[in-house]
Design brief:
Blueprint (H helix, E strand, L loop, with lengths): L1 H7 L8 H8 L14 H4 L6 E4 L6 E2 L2 E2 L14 E6 L6 H10 L9 E3 H11 L8 E5 L2 H9 L4 E3 L22 E6 L7 H13 L4 E4 L5 E2 L7 E2 L1 H12 L4 E2 L6 H10 L7 E5 L2 H9 L4 E5 L6 H5 L9 E3 L20
Parallel strand pairs: 1-4, 1-13, 4-5, 6-7, 6-8, 8-9, 9-12, 13-14, 14-15
Antiparallel strand pairs: 2-3, 10-11
Helix pairs in contact: 1-5, 1-9, 5-6, 7-8
Length: 336
């Protein structure tokens, strides 16, 4: 299946991959990273496939970033994929969001970390164990597991639940839980945290899986909000376990795309994102070109600071800069 192929070529268990990527990130001087000023010669001529993050690149919250409608990449012969660490929606859910925003993006070009979690479970033949998944997260993970007929509990079903913390009170867990998947959850509560830690700490072989470790996210276009790293951190803190991470910067998604597209040279792929520690590392650690945009969580000050050691090939204010110098009214079609 597509899901099995998605992770079938992955060679690494990505638990702790964040630490690995930080240690292998390039130490180039920030001054040596060029700003995108001549996109055709600097970037477009050397790239066949663009992989775009969504939050902070295409949109912020539910608002498109200004100018996105005017981008024109498909007519230049470029292939595009959209990869998001946000697990709150399934691929079908993200297709609806693109449609609502007026962007014609085929469903097969969309990859979410909710899909990555389900694909990982399929590749590892989790269903054959007869076990269930406990979810800290939202409907996106549930819908992706449903497509694979993998039984689950938790998630939206445990919204508002409170544990009995009176004398003798305890939370009873299903002994058939074989994995806990932690994704972004706007209704996370103490019951869910307690249930997850009991499964991981007390059920033999129960796996701890995280969709991503993003520190902050864009729930609205007004400010940054605590991301899934806060949910994963809560479970890591009470279990002492490191999760298997399936979203960026894990190599799982790029391995799938390279296999699907039959691309012999990964340098012909460019990852475009607004995060240094996920998007840019996803590119640099997997042999891709990378471009940082300053329309999301990373400011120019943070990027250029001496403390930052993560360096993309290029950076730009927004992806609108891909078309700097394109003559007004040029007939090159639509990005989407």
């Amino acid at each position: 299946s597509a899901a099995a192929a998605f992770v079938g070529s992955s060679k690494t268990n990505v638990a702790g991959s964040h630490l690995r990527t930080m240690s292998t990130s390039t130490k180039l001087s920030m001054a040596s990273v060029p700003k995108l000023t001549d996109p055709m010669n600097q970037l477009l001529d050397s790239v066949d496939v663009f992989i775009f993050d969504c939050d902070g690149v295409i949109w912020r919250g539910d608002s498109l970033i200004d100018g996105i409608h005017s981008l024109k990449l498909r007519a230049l012969g470029k292939k595009m994929y959209f990869v998001t660490n946000n697990s709150t929606k399934s691929r079908a859910g993200y297709k609806k969001k693109f449609d609502k925003l007026g962007l014609d993006v085929p469903a097969e070009e969309i990859f979410s970390s909710s899909f990555a979690a389900a694909a990982y479970l399929e590749q590892t033949r989790f269903k054959e164990t007869g076990k269930k998944v406990y979810i800290i997260g939202e409907i996106g993970i549930c819908e992706e597991l449903d497509l694979l007929n993998i039984p689950w509990s938790g998630g939206p079903l445990d919204v508002g639940r409170e544990p009995n913390m009176g004398p003798g009170g305890k939370v009873l867990v299903d002994n058939d839980v074989g994995a806990v998947v932690v994704g972004f959850d706007r209704t996370i509560n103490y019951y869910k945290i307690q249930y997850a830690q009991l499964c991981i700490n007390e059920l033999p072989g129960c796996e701890f899986i995280a969709t991503n470790l993003d520190a902050v996210t864009h729930l609205t276009d007004a400010q940054e909000w605590a991301g899934n790293g806060s949910m994963v951190g809560a479970i890591k803190g009470c279990t002492g376990q490191d999760p298997t991470v399936v979203g960026k910067p894990s190599p799982l998604m790029i391995d799938y795309l390279v296999e699907k597209l039959g691309i012999p040279d990964r340098k012909r792929i460019c990852m475009v994102g607004d995060r240094l520690d996920t998007d840019v590392l996803f590119g640099t650690d997997n042999g891709l070109q990378s471009l940082l945009v300053l329309s999301g969580v990373t400011t120019e000050q943070k990027f250029l600071s001496p403390e930052n050691t993560i360096t993309p090939d290029y950076y730009a204010d927004t992806i609108n800069d891909f078309f700097l110098g394109v003559p007004a009214g040029a007939t090159v079609g639509s990005m989407y």
